[in-house]
Design goal:
Elements (H helix, E strand, L loop, with lengths): L1 E2 L2 H9 L6 E2 L7 H8 L4 E7 L2 H14 L8 E7 L5 H8 L1 H9 L2 E2 H13 L4 H15 L6 H14 L3 H12 L6 H9 L7 H11 L21 H13 L5 H6 L7 H9 L6 H32 L5 H16 L3
Parallel strand pairs: 1-2, 3-4
Antiparallel strand pairs: 4-5
Helix pairs in contact: 1-4, 4-5, 6-7, 7-8, 7-9, 8-9, 11-12, 11-15, 15-16
Length: 329
């Protein structure tokens, strides 16, 4: 939890809430966020509910967008007018405060709520303004499942399809150098580099039979990246039912939240040929594990800097250093 003042941190700690840090009254920076994300995957900004607190929250949201990638979550907790964490935890106690924390507004909800407020009414002009306001913000979000879901959410609010909103955003990327051939190339290329997990899922959706012959690398079940659980499930299904076609495979998820996103993947052109799909999938799985090692190593580096490594973690740290340095899989 990120609060504004050190007194808030002290008061929360006295009540047993020890997961707070303070910006000491300054705007949240990208460097601060990177340091926090080395330690934890989720954070909540806690601000006063007055105008100044809302302004600070909006600045924090803008700073967060480039750092919000798959596996990371950001939320916003707005306190009642006239209250700060110090006064509220003393008044309500730790249990009530933690309930408020658990109900923090997700970044996507706060982003849409604030953009709709800035755009005004739900008229056609207001929705066009909402799209214009959203465009520079969405461009800052790294490629991945969260980027795709956020695009879907904003497109629904604007009244466009996800593909059309993405095309509008892609067009804006070419504004500084409006050379016609380059703009055409951007329109026909993917709007953002997809995550490794998404690439692997796309390969399985288009070529289900390759799941039967793939050797799943050890450690894949421990991957924490967004979408990894779905990838493992698809690997299990395709290994057991290699005769399933793409449509039948996706149909198994019809009543689940993943269904529209799998349908979107299925509708996209797969540039990999069937003959090379197995090799591509195997490579993607190994790269997913390599990325997981790097992220785990970053976590251990942060703990080492704080002098908090256990003997077991020190051994893991040395092993990961050797593996990353050698580029092993």
């Amino acid at each position: 939890m990120v609060v504004e003042g050190y007194l808030d941190v002290v008061s929360l700690a006295r009540h047993g809430i020890c997961n707070a840090v303070a910006t000491l009254g300054t705007a949240t920076t990208a460097d601060q966020l990177r340091r926090v994300f080395r330690v934890v995957p989720d954070l909540v900004f806690c601000f006063d509910g007055d105008r100044a607190g809302r302004a600070a929250a909006w600045r924090a949201l803008q700073a967060s967008l480039p750092e919000v990638r798959d596996g990371r979550q950001v939320g916003f907790l707005f306190l009642p007018d006239g209250e700060d964490p110090d006064s509220l935890v003393r008044k309500e106690g730790a249990e009530a405060f933690n309930r408020r924390l658990a109900a923090a507004l997700p970044l996507s909800d706060y982003l849409l709520e604030e953009l709709q407020r800035q755009a005004g009414s739900d008229s056609l002009d207001a929705r066009a303004r909402l799209a214009e306001l959203a465009r520079p913000l969405l461009k800052q979000v790294p490629a991945g499942v969260f980027h795709e879901l956020l695009t879907d959410r904003l497109a629904s609010a604007v009244g466009l399809t996800s593909a059309r909103l993405a095309a509008v955003i892609d067009d804006a990327r070419g504004e500084p150098t409006p050379v016609v051939p380059r703009r055409r190339a951007q329109r026909t290329s993917p709007r953002a580099r997809p995550s490794l997990v998404r690439q692997a899922i796309s390969l399985l959706i288009h070529f289900p039979a390759i799941g039967a012959g793939i050797q799943i690398p050890a450690g894949l079940a421990q991957v924490r990246q967004k979408g990894a659980a779905l990838l493992l499930e698809l690997l299990d299904i395709t290994a057991a039912r290699p005769e399933l076609g793409p449509g039948a495979l996706v149909e198994r998820f019809r009543d689940r939240p993943e269904y529209p996103h799998l349908m979107e993947l299925l509708s996209q052109t797969q540039l990999v040929s069937e003959s090379s799909a197995t090799r591509e999938l195997s490579d993607s799985l190994h790269r997913i594990l390599a990325l997981e090692r790097e992220e785990r190593l970053a976590d251990l580096v942060a703990k080492a800097e704080a002098g908090a490594l256990s003997a077991e973690e020190r051994a893991e740290f040395r092993r990961l250093q050797r593996e990353v340095a050698a580029g092993t899989r």
